[in-house]
Queue: 4 jobs
Job 1
Amino acid sequence: MNAEVYIAKTDEHGNKKWVRYEVPCASSDRVAQVLRYIYEHIDGDIAYRPCFCKRGSCGLCMMVVNGKCVKTCLAAVIPVMHIEPLPLPVIRDLVVEFPDRR
């Protein structure tokens, strides 16, 4: 299966633009795996938080996929995905600044 992935990237002025990627994947893959594939094989310049826990416990991989906030380490791939950052201050591309929890 191939997934058509649109990622919200930011330019040097912080403006968002959609970039399209065609990604080979299995129906059992997760969104985090698709992002890793794009980074390692297509666009090494994309900024995102890699998934470390792989079980949904930390929440650092959360993004908006097709309008829903999801943990990318748990969310299954679908044929067409629009991936954008959470509605928080964007550092770059899909990386956001989380609120201080002190």
Job 2
Amino acid sequence: MKIDISEYKQGLYKSTGGLIRVFLKEREGNIEDIIFTGDFFIFPEDSLDIMARSLKDVVLDKNTILDTIKEVYLKENIDSPGTTPEDFVNAIMAAGE
């Protein structure tokens, strides 16, 4: 499936575990769609998809996003060596600016 990212803002953040790239589509202050890429490791493999789905319609607010990502980390037992939920938030906020 090919996605046209021309309507997306891009954010980058370098964590200890690698570069996180975020493509963010915003609507009325909320996350309409989000795509994560980068050169970091995260397990299980579908963690990024689960995280992206959980962030849809979430207000573009640092604390709200952090709470959502932390909840997904706990629920899905995510392991991302050198990359924390805060690192993902920093990449998202960089895209939102």
Job 3
Amino acid sequence: MALFRTKEIIAASKLPPEGVKLSRMIDAIYFLPIAYFGVFATFHMHFDLLAGDWDFWIDWKDRQFWVTVTPIVEVMYPGAIMYYFWTFYRQPFGATLSITGLLVGKWITIILAWYWWANFPMNFVMPASMVSSALILDCTLLLTRSWMLTAIFGVWAFAMMFNPSNYPIFAYSKQPLVADGALLSLADYMGFTYVRTGTPEYIRIIEVGSLRTFGGHTVWISAFFSAFISMLMFTIWWQVGHFVGQSFFWATGKRGVKYRTNDVMIVGTDEYAQRHGTPNGIAPGASGRATLAEGKS
């Protein structure tokens, strides 16, 4: 399946050269500055409000909450974006577009605000990467062509791949060390060195015991829990995309009465024809209205 069938689409639209040029200009204005930059700006704000600290400070990237919260929050926005691009354009890159956009927004904040302005070292505020998880999610939708199977298998892999794909980046921060007689991780020691605000939200609590050590089975317990919650979140946000991006059109019934019909597919597609039992994907009454319009002209 070709992802971009531009020549066929232009030929089917029967646009004049001026119309083709204007269509390309609209694509350049809409998809690049508005769609992509709008995605990473709004997704960045969404992520910071729900899981910002857990994926921000390196000493907050602990076993339970970082592995649990981050995939759950990061799968929400891609669910709605994937619905939009897959339903109306049949393009399976909604998750990759969202996650890369989020990564761009986060790195802009890290470089300009926290490194250049606040003088925090980059490795202390470096975000995690979920690009590999997003690619798996998009590939699952492309191969299965089913959002339900994507929610079951793709989202499960999306959450389970989070820790293995980020372990090579942040494994150094989990090394144990003894400071003033206390057993800490390197990330905790960096948290004591670079002091932040003193509000209760940012007061670091160092756990004592084996529940939070420097790795272990609790990572996978948290990942499994995150995978199941991520399935639910993806399903909810896919329906959010359906609610916001729902198309509607006016059709004419057998008695000539016009009525509003809601459908998730664009009129003229094979999916619409199979769903409504119309030949060649033509909406009910469309051929009659076309004939009537030709007669009036």
Job 4
Amino acid sequence: METMATQPSQDAAEAWQPWHDERALRCINCQRTFSLRAILYHCPDCGDLLDVVYPRPQFDPEAVRKRWWRRRASKKHIDQSGVWRFRELLPFYDDEHQLVTYPEGNTPLLDAARSARYAGVRHLRFKHLGFNPTGSFKDYGMVAGVTQARILGMRAVACASTGNTSASMAAYAARAGLSAIVLVPEGGVSFAKLSQSLDYGALTLQIRGDFDAAQTLLQEIAPDLGIYILNSINPFRLEGQKSVMLELLEQCDWKAPDRIVVPGGNLGNSSSYGKALRELDDLGMLSKRPRITIVQAGGAAPLYDAFTQGHPDRLVRVHARTLATAIKIGAPVSWKKARRAVNWSDGWVTSVGEQDIADAKAIIGSDGIGCEPASATTLAAIRRLAREGTDKRVDPDEDIVAILTGNILKDADYTLRYHSRELYEEFTTESTVVNKGKKLESNYANPPVVVDATAEALTAAIRSRLA
């Protein structure tokens, strides 16, 4: 299956305009604009993705940087948020009382000497987004997406997920008083991630199919059910994730690193980073353009294939296979936005194998920094590009920041099996009770529901919950 795109070019990336004369949704292809409050995920004319755009902000860069920093000492919840304290660059709301917060963000930038030596580079730091409330980077975007859902007056939100998105959406929906509906692949999500969406009260539907099938079905049934989709096709999700770059630059004293390395799954993260950096560059707040380098697992690398096999204008869907379940996606919806970010920043896309991911994860752990397997693709890729010289070489003297997307406890079984020498490229675990004492009543149980991968089965299950 092929997804066609417009012809890419560096000239097109350079012509990328971040602003508009009013707040709106704008198609990344035909540039048509729509109301900021329209419930849209694709352009009705050409079918492409949408950006949230605003009038160019009028502020003094130095003054606003000081304001952002002062807010960290405030007792106001939205000032303590690592998203909303940068709200001058996210003005899609009408009133501060509309803003949802946990609070989220303000995640650390960590030195990692052992990891740097392993990769063969001299200047490597990890921006660890796993320090968020639900343990992954998704909280940055979900707080904005759920805020928009509340502004629109939606009663229910939904997502297809490999685990992290569902955990984050379930938590933020609960905080905002919205019903949450989660679609996950049966047997394709770690117990740790699955347990989060169950505990946060979401209707968790285990689809007899993969992530891509779940996402396609969700887009089919959502309009009829009146539910708001919060996958990365939702442009407001990516608005919240922009704040990662603002935090990072603030932590770097506003001196941009040479390269930012990020795992690539559905590609919303790299897309949002490119949008943030493009806006900051236009505002004169970016000292240089960091090269955005996207890393995919070898068994789930459609964007890498597009870049290296001579067809950057189209994405060929793959049957995703990797133990790094957070990026186990064969048809990433945000690939055009990600490609735009890579082209604009003169970055690159690469891939790494399962053994490389597993070893890199252990090395990151030896620095006292835990992460989920998908996060470890970053270190594996830096080592590959610096030491092996494959694809586009990384200079050992570059100042590099690698993004760690999730907490180590997201995939604890993977970690245990690696260190027990029992990790296989394909394995399935089952949770069983070996010794039974007195049974406790699950008075508030919220069990997952296994359904067929059909629109009819999903619709029936969701309607029963929303009735």
